[in-house]
Amino acid sequence: MSSEGATTLFVSSDSYDAVIVIRVAGELDYDCVPVFQQELSRALDRDTGPPELLVLDLAGLTFCDSSGLAGLLWGMRRSRETGTRMVLAGASSALLHMMRITGLLPYFETAASAVEAMGRPGTAADTAADRAPGPAWPGSGRVEVDVQADDRPGPGGGPDLDQVAQLVDQPEAPAAQ
């Protein structure tokens, strides 16, 4: 959580034919997961059908708690339901470590950058631009959630990671014909 007591999440997205890239910057925590899920739903439920590839560019993510991890799991499950391949790109070593120690990393496809996830050969300049956080894409938006410390859930709040892991282990929905 940021030092002012407010949680800030920046979410922007862009579409490249059958690929959607969602850039996430800031803090993915209990307060911001609903905004994150809304953007994922918008990408997966678009009028032209779900994308073939959904890249979550996490290079600008500065914090992720168990609720954020639950949001990533929710996104992975939703992408599977729609037949969309989802790749986490640019995840920090701290996030990858958290996913590894919780046993969830094998369930996700990862890439060093969004450029790599899209299968495009990238130069060092492309990769640096690809990792730049902030709402620099057309149609991007900025979302700020201001929550006072008293509004945050206590130790009993937030998701149960055992329940979240069960979501991953449930059989996938049959693919649409």
Automatic annotation (TrEMBL):
Q: Where is the composition biased (Basic and acidic residues)?
A: 143-153
The organism's superkingdom is given as Bacteria
Q: Which CDD domains match?
A: STAS_anti-anti-sigma_factors (cd07043)
UniProt-annotated stretches for the region Disordered: 123-177
User: What GO terms are given for molecular function?
Assistant: anti-sigma factor antagonist activity
Q: Which PANTHER family match?
A: ANTI-SIGMA FACTOR ANTAGONIST TM_1081-RELATED, ANTI-SIGMA FACTOR ANTAGONIST TM_1081-RELATED-RELATED
The protein's name is: Anti-sigma factor antagonist
Species of the source: Streptosporangium sandarakinum
